[in-house]
Specification:
Layout: E1 12-13, E2 20-21, E3 25-27, H1 32-44, E4 49-51, E5 67-69, E6 77-81, E7 86-90, H2 95-104, E8 107-108, H3 120-125, E9 142-148, E10 154-158, H4 163-169, E11 178-185, E12 187-188, E13 191-200, H5 201-206, H6 208-214, E14 217-222, E15 228-237, H7 246-270, H8 275-285, E16 289-293, H9 295-299, E17 307-315, H10 319-333, E18 341-346, E19 361-369, H11 375-387, E20 391-392, H12 402-408, H13 412-422, H14 431-437
Helix pairs in contact: 7-8, 10-11
């Protein structure tokens, strides 16, 4: 089975296993013209259209009972403009392929998320991000976009051309059209030194502003039921390159992070009472380490344990308070949480519905292993996040609707007005978009 989430007998399934759909038909266009034809034909047949990447969203953002467009033939780099520091790629290109191709050319994105299985269009359309003091999400590194709109025409946009579309379509939720190509700003490849070290939860919260200010990329994982975190600081380095050794890398990244972690999840599901003990042992198994490598080898890591996730962006100034409330909630709830909570940051950006739109943000992500009942935990966490006007990641579990978003996104009306213009008949609508954007 390919990395693209799928299922038997015409049923489409996402990576996390919590969303299924039965499209009327699937189309795998080999060119932009074929994609445009598929959109026009869907309109003739009165069918909705959705493009799907690798299924890494935990929401039903890509689900449809109409025409499902799979972009795996629309991949690869179209052009590299070294003078402008730009690269244009086909929408179905996996981030991993983009990162490796750029590295061969001596180039890199400035910042990226922590996995690279997704397609470039899927990742940017849902607002995927890493962590950064000045450098923002993957979508914020876009300088140009090409998309097929509802009438089958091709529209290009940038800061100069169709700037209103550009402002919204970089994180367009699949609501404005089907992205066919993306131009990213890139820079000459550089080295990052990563410093990972355990640190008490209370100390991280007390020193959070300082840790954020002193590092280009700061993030940490907190292990519920413990007072422990694992922190990670990534900063640019003059070198020399000192990658994680193969054996150490296998032990830390595969055995501990994926192998032992998977077993811990199985044990935790079979005997929830053991989870706090497992959490204490897990948090102590991680030791400090420092390594220096090219960006994608530092920013990203393999995730083989399947999970379901909720993540909210809260104002950066509110993050420590929200985390204290989260800890109190877990301690009092009787819940047994076997997965660490991930905390990252992003500077304000100018994308209409980016989770960091117009405000410096911190992200708090809660996870549970695939198949575990997540409702009670996520509902209690969401109650905390929404009290801070939190904005949920578009591709992760949440229960918010258009009325809520109109209150937490100052430019929400700008986005829906653009959708009215570009997709008046709601060719790209599905149940998820009806909920989050309104009818």
């Amino acid at each position: 089975m390919s990395s693209t989430a799928s299922g038997k007998n015409g049923t489409w399934r996402n990576w996390g296993g919590n969303v299924t759909a039965r499209p009327a038909r699937e189309v795998t266009p080999a060119s932009v013209d074929e994609l445009a034809d598929a959109v026009r034909k869907a309109a003739e047949d009165g069918l909705k259209v959705k493009a799907v990447g690798t299924g890494h969203s935990f929401t039903s953002i890509a689900a449809t009972d109409g025409v499902l467009i799979r972009p795996q033939l629309l991949t690869g780099i179209r052009t590299i403009d070294r003078a402008a520091g730009e690269v244009t790629v086909e929408a179905g290109t996996p981030l991993k392929r983009l990162n490796m191709a750029l590295a061969r050319e001596g180039l890199s994105l400035t910042n990226m998320g922590d996995i690279m299985e997704q397609t470039v269009s899927g990742a940017t359309s849902t607002g995927t991000h890493g962590t950064g003091r000045e450098s923002a999400s993957i979508a914020a590194q876009i300088t140009g976009l090409e998309l097929v709109t509802a009438d089958g025409s091709l529209l290009t946009c940038s800061q100069k051309e169709n700037p209103d579309v550009f402002a919204a379509a970089r994180t367009g939720l699949g609501a404005l059209g089907i992205v066919t190509a993306i131009t990213f700003a890139v820079e000459p490849i550089f080295l990052l030194t990563a410093r990972e070290e355990p640190m008490p939860f209370d100390r991280v919260l007390a020193e959070f502003d300082q840790l954020w200010a002193e590092n280009e990329h700061f993030e940490f994982y907190w292990f519920p039921h413990t007072g422990s975190t694992n922190t990670k600081r990534n900063n640019r380095s003059a070198g020399p390159e000192q990658p994680v050794g193969q054996l150490a890398g296998w032990f830390e990244d595969e055995f501990l992070s994926n192998g032992v972690f998977q077993v811990a999840q199985w044990v935790g599901r079979a005997a929830p009472a053991t989870i706090p003990t497992i959490a204490r042992v897990s948090s102590k198994a991680l030791s400090a380490r420092t390594y220096t490598d090219i960006p994608f080898k530092v920013f990203t890591s393999p995730r083989r344990v399947r999970f379901v996730e909720m993540e909210y962006a809260v104002p950066r100034a509110a993050v420590t308070e929200a985390l204290r409330e989260l800890r109190t909630m877990v301690d009092r709830s009787g819940l047994r949480i076997s997965f660490p909570v991930e905390v990252r940051t992003a500077p304000a950006d100018d994308i209409t519905l980016s989770t960091a739109s117009g405000r410096d943000s911190a992200y708090i992500a809660v996870h549970l292993v695939k198949g575990a009942p997540y409702h009670a935990y996520f509902t209690a966490a969401e109650r905390i996040f929404t009290a801070y006007e939190g904005r949920p990641h578009w591709g992760k579990v949440h229960t918010r609707d258009a009325e809520y978003f109109a209150g937490v996104y100052p430019r929400f009306g700008e986005f829906t007005a653009l959708r009215d213009r570009l997709d008046p008949d709601r060719r790209f609508q599905n149940a998820y978009l009806r909920r989050v954007l309104g009818a």
